[in-house]
């Protein structure tokens, strides 16, 4: 596991700093395609009902219960729960891994004050002191260091970041790497070890060959842990290691991998890459037929997921597949997820097109 020279790291950071701004620009770019929203569609939008995905509620409840164990220093209970989740390869009802939700439960929100981060850091230290040979405690601490690094760094332009903030960012990523090295040889393995390692590697700007090797190792360990493939696809955006068309080629390769999730994985990657494209099927080489195949698999496997239903309606519209879009919008009726359709008027506009063919 190698880190990149500082000058390379800084160049990577400069690219990364604009990610949030680019995401916002992509949303606005997409919005430009719906400028013809008429009065009838605005009236229809006013009748829509924003809903919450029941699976999100399930995840929130799980996270709350797990965080309570953490806050109460109930390390034996945490160890038992993590072992059960790893052993059973437990999934939420949308196919996301519960072991990832387990570790995310300990993360601090960016808006939390520094003292809250310090309090969480102390609990991680106490957990390791109580369970020095625990893979769970080590991965949790490494994940904390990664998140704390970005908290220190912030998301502003390079000119707004102090030398001290940059130093804290680098130091905490180094701390994450050291923790990961410490537990790498532990007899018990955890799929989140590679998840955290890949995040650390990208932040440190590892050479592409080293990053690729880490991805291959991760996928060999657990080919159905789909987060690895999203992380690789994201790293193949031109702002990181890739050229136009690279992430799409990797997504197809991931879909064809023996022992993997097939087209489902392709659709998951496309959904994950949406924030970085205004109109993904015009601005990338993403395949709508393969995406649709994956969405259909996801809908069959996880019929309770409103997220996948909303994403299918959105992506079918972007792909101009009116028949499939209408099928999805008919299932949605007058309900929508704000996380997929932030503007209800856009939902109404897309639905109207699906029903009538009039844009």
At a glance:
The protein is mostly helical and 359 residues long. It is built from 19 helices and 2 strands.
Number of helices: 19
Percent of residues in β-strands? under 5%
Run of helices and strands:
HHHEHHHHHHHHHHHHHHHEH
Cα distance, first to last residue? 52 Å
The proportion of residues forming helix, as a percent range, comes to 55-70%
Reported for the largest beta sheet, the result is:
2 strands, parallel
Please give the CATH architecture of the domain at 1-17 and 58-205: Alpha Horseshoe
Q: Report the count of strand segments.
A: 2
> Could you list the spans in which at least 5 consecutive residues all have pLDDT below 50?
2-32, 155-159
Q: Tell me, what's the shape?
A: globular
Compute the CA-based radius of gyration: 21 Å
Arrangement of strands in the largest sheet: 1-2
Q: Mean pLDDT score, rounded? A: 89
Structural class: mainly alpha
Oligomerization state: single chain
Which topology of the domain at 1-17 and 58-205 does CATH recognise? Serine Threonine Protein Phosphatase 5, Tetratricopeptide repeat
